Amino acid sequence: MFEIPSDLNPALVGLAWLRGRWEGTGYREWPGEEKIRFGQQLDFTENGGDYLHYISQTFTLDDDGLPLAPLTLESGFWRANAHAEVEVVMCGPEGYAEVLYGKLSPGRVDLTSDAVIRTQGAPVAYTAGRRLYGNVDGKLMYSFDRATDDVPLRPYIWATLERA
User: Fold this and answer.
1) Are 117 and 97 in contact (CB under 8 A)?
2) Which residues have CB under 8 Å from 64's CB, separation 6+?
3) Helix (H, G, I), strand (E, B), or coil: what is residue 5?
4) What is the CB neighbour count within 10 angstroms for residue 17?
5) CA–CA gap between residue 164 and residue 161 (Å, rounded)
6) Nearest to residue 105, comparing CAs of 83, 77, 76, 78?
7) pLDDT given at position 72
8) Nearest-5° angle of CA 67, CA 72, CA 76?
9) Mean pLDDT per segment of 10 residues, for the chain of length 164 residues?
10) I need a surface site. Which of 5, 90, 135, 143 has the fewest CB within 10 A?
11) End-to-end alpha-carbon separation of the chain, Å?
């Protein structure tokens, strides 16, 4: 269980269940690529403002399930309003920035990309995404469906994380 701190910005009450560090493993699968299992550390922090800072770090695993090498990093900001709407801005070192909008319900956030911007050197022609985050029996489960210029929206990443 988690407790909502009395000094938490009121705009974050609906997102309060996400606060903290989450760790676990997941899978990444994409046409033409080998399916891989990865480790992940995900942090949602706040500083008194009306947003959560989000940072996700993934890494490859060795045969014993221990971190081997960095895989990717993603950072951004999450905001919610009184109408249970969520806005997310995030970016990654692969050369993209993304704006997502969605709905918030108890223990669940559904997000759909509104805009994806890529650098000229971005290695993947990422065009759209859909993300689902849910609290299932105290675990954070999420999925990320992705579309590119060549592949329509399809499952890409999914993971199960526990509070650290």
Assistant:
1) yes
2) none
3) coil
4) 20
5) 9
6) 83
7) 95
8) 120
9) 83 94 97 96 96 98 94 97 94 97 96 97 96 97 97 98 97
10) 5
11) 13
